[in-house]
Amino acid sequence: MPSDLFGAIKALKQELNAVILAHYYQNADIQDIADCIGDSLELSRKAANTNADVIVFAGVHFMAETAKILNPDKLVLLPDLNAGCSLADSCPPDAFAAFKADRSEHLVISYINCSAAIKAMSDIICTSSNAVKIVNRIPQNQPIIFGPDRNLGRYVMEQTGRHMELWQGACIVHENFSEKKIVQLKIANPQAEIIAHPECEPPVLRHANYIGSTTALLKYSQSSSSSAFIVATEPGIIHQMQKQAPHKRFIPAPATANNCACNECPHMRLNTLEKLYLAMKNRTPEITLPEHISVAALQPIQRMLEMSV
Ligand code: 13P
Ligand code: SF4
């Protein structure tokens, strides 16, 4: 392994004409070497508009898959191919097809945290930052299926006043935050605001001063006059919050179990700087998709990009 990994990755970037896209849940060193750090929507937009030949996706499988669907002729690398997503796994294609078949009049809106096979069965994709906007644009008399995240789905129903048929999936990280420990933290730090991702369970969201996607939480933490925040999402984002506001205090919301790092996404954290370097050096692991899935999944992603401008 080269002693100067940052230097070696920068050299490979030039050689491959590559762009490194990183989600906020990645380790700090990966965020620091990335060309673009963002939430799922920003990273999809970046993938849709890049003129790089190679996309190195420092995130999880469904994100790299989305980049590949948008760029079928480009090489898309994921540092660790096992970086999956519990939420995407909670929605198996066969079961979802049956759910959909029982509701044939429904429009299918799927959260981007799902497999390409689920995207291919969907009408519109959304992310946590545009879900409310997209649902608000659907005619009132149109019934909707929303999947796979029941918590984001429930939050969108509250915000829009629309009923939707929800797939009952959830994220292992966001369903794990402890309401009790968050309340205890708030009592110990009364000046701190609680900020939460909509993938959290309702008992946690109920206490939140602000709810939003990772990018929205980052922006709020900068614009708010508060000097302390209890952050109920994957703590990787705190690296950017702290970088952009060194004088503020960011406290990761604790998980239910004691002495565990359960608020860190075990999938996201499979990627390391070393694996990122090796992926670029060896041009593998590469994301590949059956053409019929890739073609069918493209339209709902493009609809999302068009509907969220
Ligand atoms: P956003 O990137 O939309 O904030 O979603 C967070 C997440 O869980 C990604 O897996
Ligand atoms: Fe999936 Fe949750 Fe990890 Fe996001 S944080 S990638 S939803 S398991």
Strand order in the sheet with the most strands: 2-1-3-4
Mean pLDDT: 98
CATH class type of the largest domain: Alpha Beta
Radius of gyration: 19 Å
How many beta-strand runs? 12
Number of DSSP helices?
15
What proportion of the residues is helical, as a percent range? 40-55%
- Strand-and-helix sequence, N→C? HEHEHEHEHHEHEHEHEHEHEHEHEHH
- The CATH architecture of the largest domain can be given as 3-Layer(aba) Sandwich
**CATH fold descriptor of the largest domain:** Rossmann fold
Detailed description of the structure:
- The chain has about 300 residues and is of the alpha/beta class.
- Helices cover about 40% and strands about 15% of the residues.
- The chain folds into three domains: about 100 residues, Rossmann fold; about 100 residues, Rossmann fold (3-Layer(aba) Sandwich), CATH 3.40.50.10800; about 70 residues, NadA-like (Rossmann fold).
- The chain has a four-stranded parallel sheet with strand order 2-1-3-4, sandwiched between helices.
- The relative contact order is 0.18.
- The protein binds 1,3-dihydroxyacetonephosphate and iron/sulfur cluster.
- 1,3-dihydroxyacetonephosphate binds next to loops.
List keywords for this structure.
309 residues; alpha/beta; Rossmann fold; four-stranded parallel sheet; globular; binds 1,3-dihydroxyacetonephosphate; binds iron/sulfur cluster
What is the structure about, briefly put?
The chain is built from 15 helices and 12 strands. The protein has 309 residues and is an alpha/beta fold. Helix 1 packs parallel to helix 14 (273-282), helix 3 runs parallel beside helix 4 (61-70) and helix 4 crosses helix 15 (291-307).
